[in-house]
């Protein structure tokens, strides 16, 4: 049995003896533990230091105070009196509920509560061959709703923006129920999903008080969703107006759901220039009467902090395209982020290192300045790259209710309704969480704030992170574990993807390399299952460099399998592709049709 001294009988929060504290600190340097899985009453085994053996114990409490950082768990030795209770650190505890810190936890964010792990981490029926830990959000949500089907309480929210409002209601467990933290956790994830679908100035909540307060804290500065809180004012075009969270007493006090559909041009008659600004390259086309006369992809470094670099790079690429036309009647374009109705670059993440004051001075009007220098006072229309993906898909197949997904540097997604018009959403789905695995990788755009975002699943990083597992020989700097692969720069990923495509052409490497595309197909299939809740999808057009070649075909076949096995109600969705050239510049061609010609 563990030996205890009388001095240890104190039940206060006093720190342990200096010697034990020093040992705990030394070990803590080697390992960082995530204590969020430990709860009062849980059984565990704890090392009794004097005996050097483990003995059974129970968790009394877990402290979050800074003073208990090294020994935050108070345990009760089974068979002993409370006078023997002790504060210990993770290095002395054996429990399946004690984990090493994930990157998310190291960033200072709350871990996934045990109730959320229990209900939301669902193994897919179609496994990702190179990512066995993949746990789709859509399956976790399905399992949660089944578990909560008899719940009588709901959490309702409204995401208010200048031209619309998104509404949702989630059944939640009673505040005293053992699984109530799963409700709060999932609500936070789903709100984030809707924010990046539509944007928001304000989050309004109605429901159980403690859950609402937990969500409000999460969506405040210093909370789990601080990235969204700080991003939305810029996304919505008013950086000086902070994002706010409001609690209301009755659901009737929440504004009604509202969208403002947008009609865009679909005819590229006349002489037109167009650009598509991605995180890895600039795509340009010259179009005359709906016929492409010129197209080119030019690599660039969006991380350059000087926007003059961006201006010159775009201008040089556009001038080459302009040379293929006898005149320029109109200019269309697309870019990542949000673009205003007046063609202003409200929030574009192709300028990630440009200081805010410089962004306001030299980036906001960059598209209008480019057009004027290129062609004078001609019609101009620039929209989000994902939206152009949807329009490109509509123009290609002449059918609506279509989701366009461009798998390039990241995921560019958009949706056109049955009439071929846009919903008025921002559709920045690259920031939406697809994987609930707490050990899923973080992305550099949110600076480690989140794990499992689409950035690392449906763009080229979804493939390049698997290169080594897929048997592709790459330099050390192209391995996903290398720091150079964890930045917002895309050059290494673009080159790594070329090596993957090369390996697919090698008969000796193709079998193992094909698993990269099978894994990406699993990601795509479950993502579509998730998207179908909010978008009425009859067709899917997949574009972008990841979809090129035999690997792209394997990816789409795997995605179809996922829909058939897991989402039979959506198995009738038709997948569409185009030739490799259209996959590369399809968005750009659609962008050319955006502006209406002067009459």
Give a quick set of tags describing it.
single chain, alpha/beta, 20 strands, 599 residues, five-stranded mixed beta sheet, globular
How is this structure best described in words?
- This protein is an alpha/beta fold.
- It is built from 16 helices and 20 strands.
- It has helices spanning 18-30, 103-106, 114-120, 137-147, 180-198, 209-218, 226-235, 307-322, 356-362, 366-375, 385-397, 460-464, 491-504, 507-531, 549-566, 580-592, and strands spanning 33-34, 43-48, 53-62, 73-77, 86-88, 93-94, 99-100, 153-161, 164-172, 202-206, 244-247, 271-277, 281-288, 291-299, 330-335, 380-384, 402-407, 411-416, 539-543, 574-576.
- The strands form five sheets. The protein has a five-stranded antiparallel beta sheet with strand order 5-4-3-2-6, with no helix packed on it. Strands 14-13-12-15-16 form a five-stranded mixed beta sheet.
- Strand 13 (281-288) and strand 14 (291-299) form a beta hairpin.
Which helices and strands appear, and what pairs or packs with what?
Blueprint: H1 18-30, E1 33-34, E2 43-48, E3 53-62, E4 73-77, E5 86-88, E6 93-94, E7 99-100, H2 103-106, H3 114-120, H4 137-147, E8 153-161, E9 164-172, H5 180-198, E10 202-206, H6 209-218, H7 226-235, E11 244-247, E12 271-277, E13 281-288, E14 291-299, H8 307-322, E15 330-335, H9 356-362, H10 366-375, E16 380-384, H11 385-397, E17 402-407, E18 411-416, H12 460-464, H13 491-504, H14 507-531, E19 539-543, H15 549-566, E20 574-576, H16 580-592
Parallel strand pairs: 10-11, 12-15, 15-16, 17-19, 19-20
Antiparallel strand pairs: 1-7, 2-3, 2-6, 3-4, 4-5, 8-9, 8-10, 12-13, 13-14, 17-18
Helix pairs in contact: 3-5, 5-6, 11-16, 14-15
